Amino acid sequence: MELAILKHNGEDTGRTISLSDEIFAIEPNDHAIYLDVKQYMANRRQGTHKSKERAEISGSTKKIKKQKGTGGARAGSIKSPVFRGGGRVFGPQPRDYSFKLNKKLKQLARKSALAYKAKENGLVVLEDLSFDAPKTKSYLNLLSSLSLTDKKTLLLLPEGNKNVYLSGRNVPKTRVMVVNDVNTYELLNADNLVLCEGAVSKLENLLSK
After folding, report:
1. For helices 30-44 and 103-119, what crossing angle results, to 10°?
2. Rg (Cα) of the chain, in Å, rounded?
């Protein structure tokens, strides 16, 4: 698969780059994508939810009325879940939602996400990017040149670049990531994937291991 390499102003450099068919042209596996995104979302959950059960709330344990003869249901104490202010039955408890996935399955999921992006013409390859200083305006000008101002974009850098990251951090619908940190959720969440030229080879090496 051949893609043109664009300049920062959106013009064609006249050069092309070959993308690996083993990554960008595979038949996407939807189930692998589902599992990987499910794991990503589960790992983000804090799991600190907690409600008090009847043994944990403050209140008297005195029997509030006699067992029989009142015409109503029996009640043991004011902490019973049937009363307002009573404990909750089977309430949420702190837990860890994370689960394990095999590396090969996660790798297949990322390849599948990239293949979908290639099918939808959502890939843009850009000359290696660097800013002299962190400026949001510079990043907005870049998006404008690529006609991506109103779209969700994910910019992949070959390595960390503080100025580029800070320039795009406050721009709505935009994410800036390093190749090593990329995940299936972020790939699918973006409408367009902008790859820096140096990031392509690193991405292919990462997913071909």
Report:
1. 110
2. 27
**What size, in residues, is the chain?**
209
* Tens-digit pLDDT profile for residues 131-186: 889 999 999 999 999 999 889 999 999 988 899 999 999 999 999 999 999 999 99
CATH number of this structure's domain 2-46+98-207: 3.40.1370.10
Q: Which residue has the tokens 């090593």?
A: 180
| Domain ranges, ordered by start, for the chain | 2-46+98-207, 51-91
d(C-alpha 147, C-alpha 190), whole Å: 15
Q: Which single residue is written with the structure tokens 């890939």?
A: 123
Q: How many Å apart are CA 62 and CA 79, to the nearest integer?
A: 10
Question: Taking CA 47 as the corner, what is the angle to CA 106 and CA 79, rounded to the nearest 5 degrees?
Answer: 155
